[in-house]
């Protein structure tokens, strides 16, 4: 699962070998589902930035229900995701993400990032939904089985792409068999994690100290959702 992540460095929204991708940008330290996020797509003329709502609503949906994550193993089987997987893929730039570890009745948040603090790029899919009142372009983060580091917290993690796979992932011509091979757990040796404040449990909190290490807290545990 991926239910919260961060994007606070503009460098995370550039692809090697492509022109700068410009978009009004504010550092984000607690990005939550249903919020508008930065994605990178290729609509036929190369990579470009595109704002989307986090929580994919299939175009045929009657109730407008969104899915924040999509399992890599069943992308080509699930009606909610299969068409988007084949023709509407996106990159979701990030600096890191949060996961919660349950100990007894308590859930403790952890921040997970690249060991060198470098950029992450999540694999995503998107779709556009319409009704009589609005048009919503939305996306989901693809998840895969957790590596050795993340599995101590949760059994799923975002599918993180390596730099040489960025443009391959969003290229409309890439074959599905090639795409599936890209959705493997990112090496645990290249990642790190540390406990953070429970203040991240509240989506309205969005500040830099949310990703700082906090080894112990005293007080009431806040629920995640």
Describe this structure in words.
This protein is mainly beta. It has a single domain, classed as hypothetical protein yedk fold. The protein is built from 3 helices and 12 strands, in the order βββββαββββββααβ. Strands 3, 4, 5, 6, 9, 10 and 11 form a 7-stranded mixed sheet that branches. It has a 5-stranded antiparallel sheet with strand order 2-1-7-8-12, with no helix packed on it. Strand 9 and strand 10 form a beta hairpin. It is globular and about 45 Å long.
Brief rundown of the structure:
The protein has 225 residues and is mostly beta strands. It has three helices and twelve strands, in the order E-E-E-E-E-H-E-E-E-E-E-E-H-H-E.
Q: What is the number of E strands?
A: 12
How much β-strand is present in the residues?
25-35%
CATH fold topology? hypothetical protein yedk fold
Number of domains: 1
Helix content: under 10%
What's the CATH architecture? Alpha-Beta Complex
Based on the structure, what is the oligomeric state of the protein chains?
Answer: single chain
- Structural category: mainly beta
Mean pLDDT: 90
Q: Please, how many helices?
A: 3
Any low-confidence stretches, pLDDT <50, length ≥5? 220-225
Coarse shape: globular
Radius of gyration: 17 Å
N-to-C order of helices and strands: EEEEEHEEEEEEHHE
The CATH homologous superfamily is termed: SOS response associated peptidase-like
**Distance linking N and C termini:** 14 Å
The biggest beta sheet is recorded as:
7 strands, mixed
**What is the highest CATH level, the class?**
Alpha Beta
